[in-house]
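2024-03-11 09:14:02 DEBUG pipeline.ingest accepted 1 chain
2024-03-11 09:14:02 DEBUG pipeline.ingest length=113
2024-03-11 09:14:03 DEBUG pipeline.predict start
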Amino acid sequence: MNDALDRLASELHLDDAAHERLRLVFGHDCVERVRHLLDQSIDGCGHAAVSATYAVAKALAGRAREAADYAAYATVYAQGGAPAVAERESFATEFAWQAERLAALARASLSTT
């Protein structure tokens, strides 16, 4: 879904066992961006809350890429509702943040090893 993030994750071998901490930190950071949506299901953001909940579950399981996808969905649902999810450009801001954040975390991780 997020081509730039997919490429970066592949280049970093993000799914390797050695990168568990990076996956967990990145998943956590993605979830933090949608944390506020977890308690808004009564005000029209039900889809956003569901996606945010899935993002938390995936992040806790160390499945950072899936957490990022669900966090992006939560953000788009919260901002534009279900119709926005069908428009790929609705994801551009969140996708860019995710790719930039993973790159920054990877740089920081490499500089400390």
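2024-03-11 09:14:41 DEBUG pipeline.report Residues 3-108 form one domain.
2024-03-11 09:14:41 DEBUG pipeline.predict end
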